[in-house]
Amino acid sequence: MLVLTRKIDQAIVIGEDIVVRVLDVSGDRVKLGIAAPAGVLIMRQELCEEIRQANLEAATASPHDLRAILPKFRARAVRAELPKDS
């Protein structure tokens, strides 16, 4: 693992077209800005792990198990909807 030290408004470049910039530091929290091409998937690690675990459960689940987890994904879909323009 590469470990770097950056100050606010400083950045690192990954490859040729991904820039990660430190926007703010407050206590133990760091706010990062990431500029990347539209085709690059950027996801928080804990969400990635949650999706991976859900995929494993779905791959090995019986039809009864799938009915039990369906409400969880429906709730996520409702929260993920974008507001419609009026």
Summary of the model, kept short:
This protein is of the alpha+beta class and 86 residues long. It is 40% helix and 23% strand. A 3-stranded antiparallel sheet has the order 1-2-3, with no helix packed on it.
Can you walk through the features of this model?
The chain is an alpha+beta fold and 86 residues long. The protein has two domains: 7-35, no CATH class; 45-80, no CATH class. It is 40% helix and 23% strand. The chain contains two helices and three strands. It has a three-stranded antiparallel beta sheet with strand order 1-2-3, with no helix packed on it. The longest helix is centred in the C-terminal third of the chain and has 18 residues, at 63-80. It starts with 10 loop residues before the first strand and ends in a 6-residue tail after the last helix.
Cα gyration radius (Å): 19 Å
Number of helices: 2
Shape: elongated
Overall average pLDDT: 84
Q: Major sheet: size, sense and barrel closure?
A: 3 strands, antiparallel
The strand count comes to 3
Structural class: alpha+beta
Low-confidence stretches: none
Note the quaternary state here: single chain
Which sequence of strands runs across the widest sheet?
Answer: 1-2-3
* N- and C-termini, Cα separation: 48 Å
Strand content: 15-25%
Helix content range: 25-40%
String of helices and strands: EEEHH
